[in-house]
Write a structure and sequence with these properties.
By secondary structure, the protein is α+β, with helices and mostly antiparallel strands. The chain is built from 7 helices and 3 strands.
């Protein structure tokens, strides 16, 4: 068997699906009696830069309603459109501000929800 270079190996891995790569890692671990997770655990606490990078690359956001404004009924309607809440639950959420409307959504969804709520006259915070 011809020896493959690192570039050739990487080219092969690029063509694999995630499932195939996962199966390969399991087979590699069994064959050589090693654990890939141990290498990750050792590399985890690399230094103070790692948490800072994680904070900068946040991918989950919360949309928090901080005030209903003058058009409370419009805000309740928007809250109902954004969530699966009924009328009473949406009204309670709007009355009990500050409350989260959406939690752990992507940046695009958070921005759209915040714009819709602001358009209805509410004050909103995205965290």
């Amino acid at each position: 068997m011809a020896k493959l270079t690192q570039d050739e190996l990487l080219a092969q891995f690029e063509e694999m699906t995630l499932i195939e790569l996962s199966e390969f890692v399991k087979a590699f671990e069994e064959k050589f009696d090693v654990t890939a997770a141990a290498a990750v655990a050792v590399a985890g606490p690399a230094g103070p830069a790692a948490p800072a990078e994680a904070a900068e690359e946040k991918d989950e956001f919360d949309v928090i309603l901080t005030g209903a404004g003058d058009k409370k009924i419009q805000v309740i309607k928007v809250v109902r459109e954004l969530t699966s809440l009924g009328l009473k639950e949406a009204k309670d959420l709007v009355d009990g501000t500050p409350k989260p409307v959406l939690e752990k959504v992507n940046k695009e969804a958070a921005d759209k929800a915040a714009e819709a709520l602001k358009g209805a006259g509410a004050s909103v915070e995205v965290k």
